[in-house]
Queue: 3 jobs
Job 1
Amino acid sequence: MTLEDARKNAINGVDEVRVDGLEGEGVVFSGDEQTMLIWQYADGSYLTLNVEGDLNDPNDFGEAHTALRTELAKKLLQRLGSTIHRVAAGPRQDFIYYPKELAPNPNHTTATPLTPWPSGPSSRRTR
């Protein structure tokens, strides 16, 4: 899906997204169960982030949860957006799921959560 497709077809409209220091443009839009952020880099490549609600929890929907999913998608873009080209140029990686119950195939490889979960800029980052 392109930015123009999203702008034309999103049922509830889109919000434009900008990230300081990241060249390109993006949009975010939501439905009842998921929020999607589409970012187009200056070189024409795309990143799509899809944040879904917990389908097993009927309380995980509605405007409050849509706002949380939208904020999460924006934070993920801010945190990861500048690393995508480097990661994409690296070795092929299979999809991983955490927790394992979310995997479409129960025999699929799962991810191990990071402990502690990173909450700020990497300590390996040079200034």
Note: DSSP finds three helices and four strands in the chain.
Job 2
Amino acid sequence: MFSAQGDKNQYTEVEQLSALSSIAVLKDDFRHKILSHKGLNNIHEYANWQLAIDAVLDGSNAAIFFSDPGMQYFCATKGNDCNALTRVFMYQTMRSYLVLSKVESNKKLVQKLMIAAEQYKNTTEFAELSQQWLKQYESQPIRIPMHIENGVLNLWDQ
């Protein structure tokens, strides 16, 4: 979460965010649902991220619940001056793993990792998660060509 109003606080719990006068979110985004689930009533919904960022930059909202890469992308591509925005809360740190084997890798371990990845890739959980992320990116004002093929996100049109 980022604030442009000189908020020097570092919030550590979602419930503490009720101290902010207003928080901009993308309507029905998972962050919106997190705040709603915790009972916060200082939420302002927006149809797209650019509107939400603009509302924070112009002072209409105290903060925006958005990711670091998302902020970097929208600030860079739209020419917004986001220097005044500072992170005041981090909900979760998400990690992604990419496994590449070296020539001298343990072949049994490589095989186990390949099987585990293939099994997860074939689950409905992975399919639903993939579609959820694609829909979020498709709804953005700047279209990023992408599709998922065989469990891999490709950054070009199919």
Note: Residues 2-87 form a domain with the D-Maltodextrin-Binding Protein; domain 2 fold (CATH 3.40.190.10).
Job 3
Amino acid sequence: MAVFIPYERITYTTNLDKDEVIKRLVSKIDPNPSLLNWKFGKLDRPFKGELLGYKFRLSKISHNGVSLPIISGKIDDSKGNVTVSVTIKLDRLLIAFAMSFYLIFFAVTLAFIISSNRSYWPIILFPMVPILFSYIVAMISFNFKSSFIKDDLKEIFKGE
């Protein structure tokens, strides 16, 4: 089941020290973002969230209020290089809501088709079309948004 849920794992390696990586990351987190961001273009502080020790949980600030992927990560220091392990995934609440909505939609449509006392099995595939379409749109949207997130993170973690 987890194969169908969009997520990405990325590891950034930088020659910066841990404190500099944390300092750069903190400089890009807006502690009190407004509910709707009316600024367009590239923001000085494109992320909201928290940094606790060497772990962080962020999301990108959006001007349209649309749910964006969650970014979680951990900063490690090993062998002179700092590695930042990042996971980009959808919010669990959003996944649970979508799954329950699609399950109810499929069950109601299937019950309606069965109650019509017809034996047209291809009609049973009808509820799968909007479910499949919305899944494809969600996957494309996730990949599009995560590409911008990866670009921002690459800029933050690049060495000098």
Note: Strands lie at 7-14, 47-52, 55-60, 70-78, 81-89.
